[in-house]
């Protein structure tokens, strides 16, 4: 049995997809944070603070937004210093498989909404009374005029 090839490098198309989606739907801070994660496979929170020159509260807000929308994943790791002290560090990374699924899901939602709006607009009223400005669908149009009395 042949072992499947493990990709160690992210294809450029996936990186471009992540950049374009974040630039299109999020703010500049989100795009900058994601750019750091695209260039580096896994980044410690302190390193991101140093690179982006954000304050911690702002960075966490940006990362939590991206994490809630499943663009970014986080792992907490406990590290022991040489003097025996333990510290917790948050490491952030992009799971591109989840990112692609989220983009597909959101595009499907947009497609459904467009189809629903289009369907609703074709079923909307197509006749309007010039006197009272009431609107009627083509199914109700035959009930508006009585040919025997000549009244509407």
UniProtKB/TrEMBL annotation:
A biological-process GO annotation: transcription initiation at RNA polymerase II promoter
- Gene Ontology cellular component list: transcription factor TFIIE complex
Family the entry assigns: Belongs to the TFIIE alpha subunit family.
Q: Which UniProt keywords apply?
A: Transcription, Transcription regulation
Upper lineage: Eukaryota, Metazoa, Chordata, Craniata, Vertebrata
The record's Pfam families line, in alphabetical order, gives: TFIIE_alpha (PF02002)
InterPro entries for the chain:
TFE, TFIIE/TFIIEa_HTH, TFIIE_asu, TFIIEa/SarR/Rpc3_HTH_dom, WH-like_DNA-bd_sf, Znf_RING/FYVE/PHD
Q: Does the keyword tRNA processing apply?
A: no
Domain HTH TFE/IIEalpha-type per the UniProt entry, residue ranges: 14-104
State the superkingdom.
Eukaryota
State the species of origin.
Answer: Notothenia coriiceps
- Signal peptide residues are none
Spell out the protein name for this chain: General transcription factor IIE subunit 1
């Amino acid at each position: 049995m042949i072992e499947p090839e493990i990709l160690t490098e992210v294809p450029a198309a996936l990186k471009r997809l992540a950049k374009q989606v974040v630039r299109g739907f999020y703010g500049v801070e989100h795009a900058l944070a994601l750019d750091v994660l695209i260039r580096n496979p896994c980044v410690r929170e302190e390193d991101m603070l140093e690179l982006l020159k954000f304050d911690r509260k702002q960075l966490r807000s940006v990362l939590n937004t991206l994490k809630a929308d499943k663009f970014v994943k986080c792992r907490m790791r406990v590290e022991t210093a040489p003097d025996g002290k333990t510290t917790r560090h948050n490491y952030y990374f992009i799971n591109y498989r989840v990112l692609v699924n989220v983009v597909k899901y959101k595009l499907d939602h947009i497609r459904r909404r467009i189809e629903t709006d289009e369907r609703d607009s074709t079923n909307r009223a197509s006749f309007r009374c010039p006197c009272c400005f009431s609107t009627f669908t083509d199914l109700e149009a035959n009930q508006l005029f009585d040919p025997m009395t000549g009244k509407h």
